[in-house]
User: What shape does this take?
Amino acid sequence: MSMRDHDAATTTQAPTPSPTPGQVPGQASPSASASASASAGAPRRASGRDRYFDLLRAIALFRVVFYHLFGWAWLPVVFPSMGVMFALAGNLMAGSLGRRPAVQVVRSRMRRLLPPLWLLGAVGVTGMLLGGWGPDSEGHPGWWWLHLGFWILPLSDPPYGEGLHGIHGLIGDEWAVELAVPLWYIRAYLWFVLLSPLLLRALRRLPWTTILAPIALSAALEFGWISVSSWRLDSNLSDFGAFGACWLLGMAHHEGILKRLPRYVVPSLAPAVAGIGLWYALTHGFAPGHDLDDMPFAQSLWSFATVLLLLHISPSWSEWPRPLRRWDRLITLFNSRAVTIYLWHNVCIVAAQSLWDHLWNVPLLEEHAPWFLESSWPLLVVVWALTACCIVCFGWMEDLAAKRRPRLWPDGSPSRAGAHRA
Assistant: This one.
């Protein structure tokens, strides 16, 4: 996702004081600290970040790529990535609004979000124009020129060249459509950012009424209690209904609203809400090609329940637990390049499939290992290899947007300068 901030956004906490050499924060003497480090192996690095949220964001991004390649309907049920990503972004937004004026926060979020989209548009729209896409594609030329502005400020879905030819052997004909698929997340994220000052004020005044209002909106749209004639407005309202409660849960977590609930409430309530959402999906044609992403009301219930449970657990790691330390660099990379991975992974899938087809020209593989060529598992490796190339080629824009020195591979390793994404 993004296919989310996006960002698609990350979570930052107040930095912890730096320990003296050999001393672990919270311990009295350097000698005792050194002894503990020797018995525990390599010392853990205090990052000043909530590493639990970093882990959730990395899992969400991996699941998005996995789903877009394999298309298994049950993947969004196992882990509703978009709801999780919106919740994490909402948590970050609430923290920022608590420290700085709303105008500064909104401007900062937009500055971080939009330049990676502009880079995608510069490459993608140029390719579409070269492929023959132009003003006649949306009827009246004036509408085409006007709607191109959504590539700059995505208050609605930007246009794209559907039906354009690809480059034989390099990228398939559906590349323009797949390039545009993740852009709904950028549009929804932008609206959440713009509305966050008002949402936070409402959340503080009427917490649970505000949190549940998007689910009520989703139900009203689903059952026809509200009718919207404009598809652009309907898309915005539908996405707000599906994921608005997740964004608000993230804000509520930061504000301490969830902690005020008795400990038994969330484990008792969330499974019931999730069960209703899953029941609704199963009774309304849930299947490959028609899953939670096509069922906003079921999505709103399932995502709300899952995010509520994940935030209820919320161990708030400032350091990695031992079993997860080996994944530190990979998770750091995912968080540092969340928007880049989300925006470019679909194009990487299309390109990987086109390149993979060349292997059918190898007689040995075609004759003796057709199962290998038909499997999507080896293709997953190619997709991530191409995504890594996009991280190197385009990821620097996230650094420029955040006013940092550009880095090619920001995985947090000591040999590479630069701080983690904040």
